[in-house]
Amino acid sequence: MNPSIHGALHGLRVVDLSRVLGGPYCGQILGDHGAEVLKIEPPQGDETRTWGPPFEHGVASYYMGLNRNKRGLRLDLAGEAGREQLLGLLAGADVLIENFKTGTMERWGIGYEALAARFPRLVHCRVSGYGADGPLGGLPGYDAALQALCGLMSVNGETGGEPLRVGLPVVDMVTGLNATIGILLALQERARSGRGQFVEAALFDCGLSLLHPHAANLFGGGKAPTRTGNAHPNIYPYDAFPTRTIPIFLAVGNNGQFGRLCELLRAPELATQPEFESAGARSVNRDALRSELVERLASVDGEAFVETLSAAGVPCAPILSVEQAIAHPHTAHRGMTVSLDNYRGIASPIKLGRTPATYRLPPP
Questions:
Q1: Where is coiled-coil annotated (predicted)?
Q2: N or C: more exposed end of the chain, with fewer CB within 10 A?
Q3: What angle, rounded to 10 degrees, do the helices at 302-311 and 255-264 form?
Q4: Fold of the domain spanning 13-210+333-346
Q5: Cβ atoms 335, 325 nearer than 8 A
Q6: Catalytic site residue 172?
Q7: How confident is the model at residue 221 (pLDDT cuts 50, 70, 90)?
């Protein structure tokens, strides 16, 4: 990608005081799309610099994955000199991102109210665990604890098995995404009013927001959600299946797709049986349907069958490892990896036609 292309956020100045994941992920998204991001770390550095192995030139890969397209500076904000330097930087900034424990910046005299009075156009974004008040207000938030508290673990895992953490920091990452959305909304409103505002993305709120369709099912009068392994709680066959060669995932969402699946398995009669002829019936009778499909898939070459199904419009995929997914030819075609000096990472998934993401700076 040509780094001389100005991104959609060219000219936007961001001061990123955040550490660990949610806030830095937000700052990286803004930086990828042209914002000038200054990451300010405490004297000891962002703690994720030590979250390894693996390490790249002494810095943990965890940190490297969240902090490209940022310049770096270390400041001791607990000291007056550091705070004065920060105020000088904020004088020319549009956005502040921080995730200090509630009350910390207020204690230093640089909380939202103080900064808003001094910099009325500043958009101040706080990533927090639970918000500032309420029964859990002010507590620190960590992804796995929020997955547990917000019900995500209760629906993740095998049927009859123990609750499991989702295998990636999904709450932290969606909080970073919502922080980014909130900042862009506030900037859009500022264009009309001329005023900045406070934006908060709390891990607790974002964790709850991920509960679809389980919360919707509960609100709709259904039974309490349970763990269903790889299977979807509402539709079937939407599940992982073994084949003669590799495991595959079938994501069949309607009658037409199910009919084509049955035809390609040389079992068209399945699609017309009363217990399988509608989406609701297939969901209720999923155990019987799974047995039928497992029996027929046992002699199938998984790789070839995925290609055949995909060509016929039946959603499916091989179940790949992370290494295989990154090496997939479509990953290269979509430009979804970045190489910059000695840095490698996952590229921005947000594609803009005239002002695409660019990759200008490795992590500081």
A1: none
A2: N
A3: 130
A4: Rossmann fold (3.40.50)
A5: no
A6: yes
A7: confident
